[in-house]
Design goal:
By secondary structure, this protein is of the alpha/beta class. The protein has one domain: Rossmann fold. It contains six helices and five strands. A five-stranded parallel sheet has the order 2-1-3-4-5, with helices on both faces. Helix 2 packs parallel to helix 3. The longest helix has 14 residues. The chain is globular and about 30 Å long.
Length: about 120
Amino acid sequence: MAHILVVDDDSSVLSLLTRVLADHKVTALQDGQDAVRLARTGVPIDLLMTDYLMPTMTGPEVIGWVREVRPGLPAIIVSSHGDLLDRENTDWWRRETHVSKPFSVETIRSAIRAACVES
């Protein structure tokens, strides 16, 4: 059982992901700054899953700050802007495991497997 830190400003997405990931320990937060604070406490985290666009901090910013204290932590970016990011050919988008919204349960599980293998 992995500990997955999920960050999304949409409570319905957090609720859905918490249910989908029920076979893991999930910490669900709505703010990237809270995720960074949690990572700094030393609580074991096996995977970070974050929304791309949030009010106080973007997903790539959350990943960057968390990796300052957890280098190499696998991460997944979830975004409803995946098509745009694919077209823009953004380096960080290609480098990180990513999932476009709306997503299926199998897509999320596949992304978790991919992110954990790549790390």
